[in-house]
């Protein structure tokens, strides 16, 4: 019996040594970060198709009752969660409130097609070289141009 336990212990040690000697599985190399991201995913390069998919996803999240129509009340509720409700303070809240005002522009509701069309118009304005991809640099240039227009 002692011989059996000794052989089993030796086998276990041999297997453990062999397992620990194996090289660990290689870790996939991280993709190089894009220049000018400044830690913000909104600065990443984006294709027109990605912009459309993002708009559709955002619409689905905002359409609280999932009826295919986004009401101003639903958008206001989402903006309030970001701190942008009535008298909302903070950068995120002000941004959300401005977005809601621009989105509805006097209307009480928007369809998914209207929501998507606005997102794609925004994309097209930012795609300065019209290659179907908005880069971080193009986005920054479009932002600067918009600020110049608002300042004048």
Characterize the structure shown.
The protein starts with a helix and ends with a helix. It is mainly α and 152 residues long. Helix content is 59%, strand content 7%. The chain has a domain at 44-130: Recoverin, domain 1. The strands form two sheets. A two-stranded antiparallel ribbon has the order 1-4.
What structural keywords apply?
152 residues; Recoverin, domain 1
Shape field = globular
In quaternary terms, these chains amount to: single chain
User: What is the fourth-level CATH superfamily of the domain at 44-130?
Assistant: EF-hand
Q: Got a strand count?
A: 4
Largest sheet composition? 2 strands, antiparallel
Q: What is the helix tally?
A: 6
Structural class: mainly alpha
Mean pLDDT: 75
Q: Distance between termini?
A: 94 Å
Determine the strand fraction and express it as a percent band: 5-15%
N to C succession of SSEs: HEHEHHEHEH
Q: Look up the CATH topology of the domain at 44-130.
A: Recoverin, domain 1
> From the coordinates shown, what is the CATH architecture of the domain at 44-130?
Orthogonal Bundle
Order of strands across the biggest sheet? 1-4
Radius of gyration: 27 Å
Low-confidence stretches: 4-8, 27-34
Assigned CATH class of the domain at 44-130: Mainly Alpha
User: What is the share of helical residues?
Assistant: 55-70%
């Amino acid at each position: 019996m002692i011989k059996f336990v000794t052989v089993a212990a030796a086998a276990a040690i041999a297997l453990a040594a062999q397992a620990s000697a194996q090289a660990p599985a290689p870790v996939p190399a991280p993709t190089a970060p894009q220049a000018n991201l400044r830690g913000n995913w909104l600065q990443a390069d984006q294709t027109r198709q990605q912009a459309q998919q993002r708009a559709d996803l955002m619409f689905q999240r905002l359409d609280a009752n999932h009826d295919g129509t986004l009401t101003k009340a639903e958008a206001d509720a989402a903006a309030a969660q970001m701190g942008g409700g009535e008298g909302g303070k903070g950068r995120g809240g002000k941004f959300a409130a401005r977005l809601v005002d621009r989105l509805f522009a006097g209307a009480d509701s928007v369809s998914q097609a209207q929501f998507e069309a606005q997102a794609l118009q925004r994309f097209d304005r930012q795609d300065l070289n019209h290659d179907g991809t908005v880069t971080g640099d193009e986005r920054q240039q479009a932002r600067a141009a918009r600020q110049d227009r608002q300042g004048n």
